Amino acid sequence: MYDPPAPAPIAFNVVIGFSSLGDGEVVTQHSLAIADAEPRGDGQTGRRPATKVKHVSPVYPSAVRELKIAGVVLLEARIGADGRVIDAMVLRSIPELDQAALDAVKQWEYVPLLENGVPTPFTMTTAIQFSLQ
């Protein structure tokens, strides 16, 4: 039996790699607003990171796959205080794959980021890998 690492509730990020029939795969994700929880003066944390609760994998368009076009599309997404994607834009483009990446990311949903108990919008970047392997 072990003592808990911190007072409940605690939050942590989990990175899961996956591949599904060669569809697009999230290879990295970083939120500009989600940092390590910062302790308040009372030793508690005033921040709870957002947690993804709905993930939609990008679909690799078959016509693009046949042309052997592959690579990473880098996106920036704004997440609202309700945890839904408000807007997403391409930062690094592969024109034939941009829309597939955007269509998937716009469907993601999060348990909202909390700042001092208040749901807070944030911005994140994510890289979507399209691979022919």
Short structural description:
With 133 residues, the protein is mainly beta.
Describe the protein's architecture and organization.
The protein is mainly β. It has one domain (25-34, 44-130): TonB (TolA/TonB C-terminal domain), CATH 3.30.2420.10. Helix content is 12%, strand content 36%. The protein contains two helices and nine strands, in the order βββαββαββββ. The chain has helices at residues 62-66, 95-105, and strands at residues 25-31, 47-48, 51-54, 71-79, 85-92, 109-111, 113-115, 118-120, 122-130. The strands form three sheets. Strands 1-9-4-5 form a four-stranded antiparallel sheet, with helices on one face. A hairpin with a 2-residue loop joins β7 (113-115) and β8. The longest helix has 11 residues, at 95-105. The protein starts with 24 loop residues before the first strand and ends with a strand. Residues 8-22 and 32-43 have low confidence and may be disordered.
